[in-house]
Specification:
Shape: elongated
Order of helices and strands: HHEHHEEH
Radius of gyration: 20 Å
Strand content: 5-15%
Structural class: mainly alpha
Number of strands: 3
Distance between the termini: 88 Å
Oligomer: single chain
Number of helices: 5
Amino acid sequence: MEPTHPEEGTRGADPGPASRSLQPIRVTMHETKELALQAPDALLDVAAVAKRLVVSRAAVYRLVRDRRIPHYRLPAGLRFRAAEVETFIASRRVDARAPRTYGGS
């Protein structure tokens, strides 16, 4: 059966500018950092943040529940700004200590 509308039944059809702004960007772990530099206002979904942090989705939900990571509650679900995820990662940096010396002179 042929679709009656040209875009009906077409995969990947452009949903238009209104709905495109609410769609999360799906990226790989390595692309998230580049995205934060190029488009800091880009919104990521839970799965993308989990990939970037190399944790499970449940761990991301725990960070949200404990209010440890900045996030937005939108009608479409939880979203995270790419730049804020990178800031979160940077804030968790632990400085190395000088090695311990034992004994003598």
